[in-house]
Design brief:
With 61 residues, the protein is mainly α. The protein has one domain. It has 3 helices and no strands. α2 runs antiparallel to α3. The longest helix is centred in the C-terminal third of the chain and has 14 residues.
């Protein structure tokens, strides 16, 4: 779900029962970094914008 959202295939990033909150921001930051290194982000600019917005929820700019 996270990759689908980062790549623009979904308008939201939410899992059933709010399970996306079971992982911390460092987990998602690591996944984002690894996805970038593996060149699996279809639209890196969109993914970066979405990741920055997501990190902002945690108070990270």
């Amino acid at each position: 779900v996270f990759f689908a959202w980062l790549n623009g295939h979904q308008s939201h990033f939410s899992l059933p029962a709010g399970m996306q909150s079971a992982r911390g921001i460092l987990h998602y930051a690591d996944i984002f970094r690894l996805a970038d290194q593996a060149n699996v982000l279809d639209n890196p600019e969109l993914a970066t914008r979405r990741m920055k917005n997501f990190a902002g929820i945690y108070g990270i700019e």
